Amino acid sequence: MSIQWFPGHMAKARRQVTEKLKLVDIVFELVDARIPLSSRNPMIEEIIGQKPRLILINKADMADPAKTKEWIAYFEEKGIKAVAINSDKGTGLQQIQKETMKILSEKWERMKSRGIRPRAVRAMIVGIPNVGKSTLINRLVKKNIAQTGNRPGVTKAQQWIKAGKEMELLDTPGILWPKFEDPEVGYRLALTGAIKDNILNLQDIALYALRFLETYYPDRLKERYGMEEIPQDAAELFDHIGKRRGCLMAGGQIDYDKTADIIVRDVRNVQFGPITFDLELLEQD
Ligand SMILES: Nc1nc2c(ncn2[C@@H]2O[C@H](COP(=O)(O)OP(=O)(O)OP(=O)(O)O)[C@@H](O)[C@H]2O)c(=O)[nH]1
Ligand SMILES: [Mg+2]
């Protein structure tokens, strides 16, 4: 999958994260529960190094709960604590403070023994575009301070936000990386909304989604688009769905762009039920 990147923006984002790293106690790495591995930025791993970290598996409501449990165990095996949350509804958030204090307990004890009064924990929130960083911050602060939106690239600059006396949170713009080693990663990021639609070939993404559903959730696919059987030919499959959803052009031909748009939107709106796309352990690290 080829995507037009903006290396200048990426370099800037990278520099900004590196600069702020020394100011924070912990990094909250947000990943998307539907793609807990594909949504991890390999660059982040390299930038944050030894800094204490908590993985927050956000949008847990959109993923398969059994798979989310497996991913939590996977991260734990790697020595990183992970917590499943839903920032939209605010579930799982109490765990964040609890796990943060566990991770930082030694540092806090050390500060106490030196007579330094406990202060607010400073946390930097990082993650791919549209993963829910700003939504999480608003939830933790219990106010709509950070701008949010269901498209990538809403947050343009870093911003410190106070959450009570306990935490100071640094909201950051979402960062992607220059090249996806595994093309599946690109498709999954695109499908779940981390990449701007106008630089994508939505027909490719829709076809990727259809084939995934055909493999793992054939009944949900058939039911959604009223199919007895799933056509093997891509054009036939698009024709069926397009006709059914009224995506016709003048002259009665099927509008493939519109059909692709509907399929991708159906996936993003959880019309096939909660789904985890990262099923296998993609070797990224
Ligand atoms: N279903 C569901 N939606 C969520 C959740 N968290 C965030 N969202 C939605 O995801 C979209 C993106 O949220 P933002 O908080 O703007 O994402 P961001 O990571 O700050 O994005 P950028 O600023 O573009 O990097 C919004 O429409 C949120 O309502 C969640 O846990 N579950
Ligand atoms: Mg944001």
TrEMBL record:
Residues 14-178 form the CP-type G domain. Keywords: Cytoplasm, GTP-binding, Nucleotide-binding. It is found in: Cytoplasm. Pfam families: MMR_HSR1. It comes from the Bacteria. Belongs to the TRAFAC class YlqF/YawG GTPase family. MTG1 subfamily. Required for a late step of 50S ribosomal subunit assembly. Has GTPase activity. This is Ribosome biogenesis GTPase A. The gene is ylqF.
